[in-house]
Amino acid sequence: MADAFDAFDYELLVELAETPGVPGYEDRIRELVRAELDPSVDRLRSDAMGNLVGTIEGGAEYDVVVAAHVDEIGFMVRHVDEEGFLELDALGGWDPRILRAQRVTVHTDDGDLPGVIGSVPPHTLSDEEREATPEIEDVRVDLGLDGGTIEERVDVGDLVTVTQRTERVGDFVTGASLDNRVSVLAMLEAARRLDRPDVNVHFAATAQEEVGLRGAAALGVDLDPDLVIALDTTVANDVPGFEAGEQITRLGDGAAIKLKDSSAITNHKLNRRIRRLAEARDIATQPEVLPAGGTDTGGLQRAGGATPAGAISVPTRYLHTPTECVHGEDLGAVIELLVATLDTETGDHDYTL
Q1: Is 131 a catalytic residue?
Q2: Which residues on adjacent β-strands are paired with residue 258?
Q3: Residues 111 and 231 in one domain
Q4: Range of the domain at 23
Q5: Could you give the number of structural domains in the chain?
Q6: 63-69 and 227-235: which strand pairing?
Q7: 129 pLDDT band (50/70/90 cuts)?
Q8: Are residues 211 and 254 in the same domain?
Q9: Taking the model in full, what pTM does it have?
Q10: Fewer beta carbons under 10 A from the terminal one: N or C of the chain?
């Protein structure tokens, strides 16, 4: 039986997922993507927002943007107290409930420091404390060093990421930054496989998506594309406690074709073309109707005027936690569907509504 993980570069996925890059400070992950994208494209450039764009030139004067954000949710140090404990400001959408007892890395000018977000023993909590709703402002990072040492090594504005290994769990891959590094991998795989497209294809590794689609909105003005295809993760609540209609997507059921999220209603002519293409090529897909949460689809759809936009999503369990999970077959389907969509885009399809 074939292993679904043989369909893509799994080792690169691990490297992408474990390379830090919080919103506005995507330098390390951008340089990795730059190195991987460079051999596959004709031109490569970046901008002042931190977006990186690699272009494969086609024969037609028609521009397609494929966008996958490279930033991950994280934190910025907002205060260091006298004893050396760090207070944090969130960069992106964290649920404070899952932060107790996590390991983190503090990224300083002098190098990375390991730390923990502690959780006091239940033996010492009052009933009121046990029932209290945690807030990000309550989180403290313990670096295991005295206050004087930390004062010398850590500054307000240093970045913090959750530390978690990326590894296989059955048919899944799990890790802390699969949102959105699985889509970045899909984009890189498509750039490798795309051969002489009819149109210009711009592979965009966008910045600052997790704090409001900011990189994509700026990029949409600069590139002024004729067509946009965004790549991102989406919710898979196919776990106990959720009814079928609440699950959004299911792991193992294929690539998700986005119909809407809170930032965009996608172009239904484009959706129909992608769906028919998947059926013709026997690529497993499922529809995605996401009631909350935005993506670069919205940032690019209207940044430079009305642009036909669609999105292909990777179903993901436990989003925005350190144990995000993706099915290997779903990721393979996303890559295959993206390549097929780009291979068959001639610039002659009418997406006007």
Answers
A1: no
A2: 288
A3: no
A4: 4-72+176-343
A5: 2
A6: parallel
A7: low
A8: yes
A9: 0.95
A10: N
